[in-house]
Predict the structure.
Amino acid sequence: MTQTDTDGNFERNPVSWYPPAIEFPEFVESAIDYFDNTSALLVSDPPVLDGSALKVSCENEADGTLDRLESGQKALVDGEISRAGAILEPVASRHPHAAALVGIISFALGRRHYAIGHFDIISRIIPQDSGLSLYWSLANLGRWLVKSDRSMSLEADYMSLLCRGVGIDVGCGGFKTCPQAIGVDLTA
């Protein structure tokens, strides 16, 4: 995808290598069931980037990122799912495609909280105005999973270990960490 400036010159869109968005159905009974099926499809036919897209995506990345992405994608295509996750994990916190693949792999392997964490990483590292892509689909899917099942929230998962009795959950946004807590938040 290219854009033109006012003089008609073409300039590269920095996110032209982003894979296409996931198409969501109009209605789904369960977000978890929906993504169980979708993650299985994505693992069996992974959204890999070609060589030129990988190179463009790694232009400003640390040394070794491109090698890890190439090796991780190859392992995933070859059906070596756990190995692909292990290869991609070290760069998943800074590269959206690695985070997407690790999230998809983690969900398919039943590590749902870990997958949601990687989908959250994606929403933090890609530009807000980057347009529809696989990455925004996964970031939104992570939010949808948490909204539909509060036990999927990373904060709730960790904090539920500490919650005992009636307490106050300040800043809960309407979704309390523990059901017995008193929720307090400012809403617009």
Summary: The first strand starts at residue 2 and ends at 4. Helices lie at 31-44, 51-57, 65-77, 81-88, 96-108, 112-125, 134-148, 154-159. Residues 1 and 16 are 5 Å apart (CA to CA).
